[in-house]
Amino acid sequence: MSGDLDSLDGDNASRFRIGTIKKIMKIDDEVELIAQDAVFTVSKATELFIMSLVRDVLSANPAKKIIDNNDMYCNVQKYEFSDEMI
């Protein structure tokens, strides 16, 4: 999986649709304008976060070939989030 993280260096493509990320960001009523760089940064941060969660699930159970919703849910439950983050 670390090879995937290394391949993100200098990668200008996003695995998520930029328009969809921007639409999600604009759900907040306080947001009026969003710079393209901000949308790209949020997209890349989301990719890295998901890759980290998947890596954690796979390292806990290396024989696992398929990750399902329950695996991800159990993994996320290990972390403490403050109300400001949600």
Structure description:
By secondary structure, the chain is mainly α. The protein has one domain (2-76): Histone, subunit A (Orthogonal Bundle). The chain is built from 4 helices and no strands. Helix 3 packs across helix 4. The protein is extended, with a radius of gyration of 15 Å. The model has no long low-confidence stretch (mean pLDDT 82).
First and last CA, distance: 27 Å
Radius of gyration: 15 Å
Integer tally of domains: 1
Low-confidence parts: none
CATH superfamily: Histone, subunit A
Task: Give a brief rundown of this model.
This protein is mainly α and 86 residues long. The chain is built from four helices and no strands.
Features:
single chain; 86 residues; mainly alpha; Histone, subunit A; 4 helices; 55% helix
